[in-house]
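Input record, target 12 of the design panel.
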């Protein structure tokens, strides 16, 4: 039988109150439990003594028997000391890489950046071509005049 030390919700709507219980992992959250070892009232201020009340000795006994605390309960038990040691060594449970985009999203971002760079290069080339076109109209007029003169000579002959 897999044992869990977890929270069982009580209280009315919008007024939560939790019991810290030892229960079979297959039992429903608010259902049957083996033993109640404490309470948790999230409506209390964080520095209040009544916010978390857990019997540390009972919790240590159940952990020794193999009960696994949930993340929230493990955080509470890490603050309770029995015989100079915390009941449970809790480590930060959040995954810092969870918010990073996946490989496909990273590829899409890279493709978008490549397209943007190509677009900027094309704009710069277009600007250079436009500047060259402004500076070169006198050179282009000369061949047009030469063609007109050649056409006139052909008519004269």
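The sequence produced for target 12 reads:
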């Amino acid at each position: 039988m897999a044992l869990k030390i977890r929270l069982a919700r009580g209280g009315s709507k919008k007024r939560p109150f939790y019991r810290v219980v030892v229960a079979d992992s297959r039992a429903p959250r608010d259902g049957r439990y083996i033993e109640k070892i404490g309470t948790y009232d999230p409506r209390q201020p964080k520095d209040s003594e009544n916010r978390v009340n857990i019997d540390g000795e009972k919790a240590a006994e159940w952990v020794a028997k193999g009960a696994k605390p949930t993340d929230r309960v493990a955080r509470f038990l890490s603050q309770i000391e029995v015989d100079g040691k915390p009941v449970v060594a809790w480590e930060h449970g959040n995954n810092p890489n969870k918010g990073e985009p996946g490989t496909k999203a990273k590829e899409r971002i890279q493709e978008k950046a490549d397209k943007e760079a190509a677009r900027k290069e094309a704009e710069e080339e277009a600007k250079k071509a436009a500047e060259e076109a402004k500076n070169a109209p006198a050179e282009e007029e000369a061949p047009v005049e030469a063609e007109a003169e050649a056409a006139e000579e052909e008519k004269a002959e």
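The mean pLDDT is 86.
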